[in-house]
Amino acid sequence: MSSAIEPAVIEPGTVVLVGGGPGDPELITVAGMRALLGADVILYDRLAPTALLDGLDAECVNVGKIPRGAHTPQETTNQMLIDYARDGKRVVRFKGGDSFVFGRGGEEAIALAEAGVPVKVIPGVTSSVAAPELAGIPVTHRGLSQGVTIVAGHVRPDDERCTVNWSALAKTNTTIVILMGVKYLPDIVKKLLDSGLAPDTPAAVVSSAATDKQHTLRARVDEIVNVATREAVTPPSITIIGAVAGLDLKI
Ligand code: SAH
Known about the structure:
Bound molecules: S-adenosyl-L-homocysteine
Strand order of the largest sheet: 3-2-4-1-5
Number of strands: 10
Distance between the termini: 32 Å
Structural class: alpha/beta
Mean pLDDT: 95
């Protein structure tokens, strides 16, 4: 392979789902960058490393979803992907992290396949692992945690739309990584503690990882909500609960 990154050859009428990594433009894969360079149209949202779009020839369309703010409904995004592809365009759907980790890439892949549009997936570096890592927290660690569960915290544990068994998670003795969980962190932590999670379990909140605003807070799980509130944590943030959050790697 030559060191220069050449545009990918994308068949007209095809959609490529590209995971762009957690925010730093250098954390996209080579295949992902090649797809961006080979695209006619790029549908992106706010968590994608949008700095990479500067200077590209492609038409760039923002289909971003801001939490609880104005957003493009998923059905509209799906239809736009289909329409651009049917128009003979080389289409890239560009998002933050990995498309299949809360990226709704699975829904897009299904919608495209049902419409008869060829679709290809390029995995990305997911923030669920990279954000802790950039803060010096390995999501697993020999002797401390033999596993990790990545969960969405966008609804309260007692919400009828919640399908996570938080009580079971409180007892797994493995790492819990919560995405989209800033607003309901107090409800989630209360549920975990009520379900038997040890109050002195280490926790951390990593905000805006892989950007120049990256910031980490650490506290025992029974104090993490107070600390996060005092520091006015905002999305995008990831909460890590488990022994690994107490590690100091000294890196
Ligand atoms: N597909 C993405 C996740 C999308 S869900 C991935 O694999 O990374 C959106 C959530 O991801 C945010 O609410 C936040 O919890 C997390 N997130 C994404 N980018 C982040 C970043 N740079 N720093 C911290 N959290 C981030």
